[in-house]
Design goal:
about 350 residues, alpha/beta, 8-stranded parallel barrel, globular, binds ligand PBG
Length: about 350
């Protein structure tokens, strides 16, 4: 008989033989930034997560640093009336996130500031890229000239779905450059447009931002676990869904190909998202690319599952988070984006 119990006799022994341990440095804490002052407002249906005005985020960050968390991820949240078809507020000169980055880096120069690069929170239609115009079968004004006109149905039949991938790239690149100018350490494209990493790398390099790194949301699935986030970022699509650009959850090989493409395009770090429901993808990605920093996003719906169950007294909240987040690290994640990070330590 092989005796395993000897490794488990008490807490100290279990700690001694533990293969995986969570450390504050593993974590990235998301912030939802809004315009205004003195705002720290609870987000509906997203327990324990807030909208912060820049001044309040500046007040909250020392709490993170104190426990050793040294990376944050910024999302901008704007008013409906500021949104337009091309997401102009994402990349105008003094856009909300650029101002947040500038002030945060000024006050906390050692903090790693990552900015999310996507248009869904800024567009009137709520998609991550520019949709083809449905009604007339013509392109909307953002389309570059000389490109073939496609109707929505035509686009779909050509396998392009609703989204005009290629004319979105320049807008994402513009947004990334603006954040780099403001002082972002890392930009994180999450729009799932083909070629977005290459377009952003090229734009950053040509504008003199060779040291700004790219954390690519490479394997991002079309998931039903993004619900609370979309409420927080006010970024639900007004028509259709994101299945024409995010990965079909029935696929694993495709996710690895997405990661491979992003690495070839110049991604410094890669991501699997969601995390809890995609541990197999995390494990395969780590095995295939052991030397790339692998990030996993424990997304809003996955977070709320535990919060909601705990609220009903069905499980112990902290222990459940510890177990799930440790599993994500054990599967192979180097960095974990988590709404619970601050409560863990
Ligand atoms: C934007 C984006 C989303 C998330 C992060 N960036 C939502 C989406 O694709 O609809 C989800 C994060 C979460 O649910 O916590 N593209």
């Amino acid at each position: 008989m092989k005796r395993f119990h000897k490794y488990r006799i008490d807490q100290a022994t279990r700690d001694k033989y533990a293969e995986t341990d969570l450390s504050p440095h593993d974590f990235i804490c998301p912030y939802f930034i809004v315009e205004g002052e003195k705002i720290k407002k609870k987000i509906k249906n997203f327990d324990g997560v807030y909208h912060f005005s820049i001044d309040q985020a500046l007040k909250d960050i020392p709490g993170l640093l104190k426990i050793g968390i040294n990376k944050i991820l910024l999302f901008g949240v704007i008013a409906e009336k500021q949104k337009d078809e091309v997401g102009s507020f994402a990349y105008y000169k003094d856009n909300l996130v650029s101002r947040a980055i500038k002030e945060i880096k000024k006050k906390f120069p050692k903090l790693t500031v990552i900015s999310d690069i996507c248009l869904c929170g800024y567009t009137s239609h709520g998609h991550c890229g520019m949709p083809f115009d449905s009604a007339q079968g013509t392109r909307l004004p953002w389309a570059s000239s000389g490109v073939e006109t496609l109707s929505r149905a035509g686009a779909r039949s050509q396998g392009q779905g609703l989204i005009d991938n290629d004319s979105t790239l320049q807008l994402l690149a513009k947004m990334a450059v603006k954040h780099a100018q403001a002082g972002a350490d890392i930009v994180a494209p999450s729009a799932m447009m083909d070629g977005q990493v290459a377009a952003i790398r090229k734009a950053l390099d040509s504008q003199g931002f060779k040291k700004v790194k790219i954390l690519a949301y490479s394997a991002k699935y079309a998931s039903s676990f993004y619900g609370p986030f979309r409420e927080a970022a006010k970024s639900s699509p007004s028509f259709g869904d994101r299945k024409t650009y995010q990965i079909d959850y029935r696929n694993a090989k495709q996710a690895l190909k997405e990661i491979e493409a992003d690495i070839k395009e110049g991604a410094d770090m890669i991501m699997v998202k969601p995390a809890h429901t995609y541990l197999d993808i995390i494990a395969q990605a780590k095995q295939k690319y052991p030397n790339k920093i692998l990030t996993a996003y424990h997304v809003s719906g996955e977070y709320m599952l535990i919060r909601a169950a705990a609220k009903q007294g069905r499980l112990d909240e902290k222990q459940a988070f510890q177990e799930v987040l440790t599993s994500i690290k054990r599967a192979g994640a180097d960095w974990i984006i988590s709404y619970y990070a601050k409560k863990l330590f």
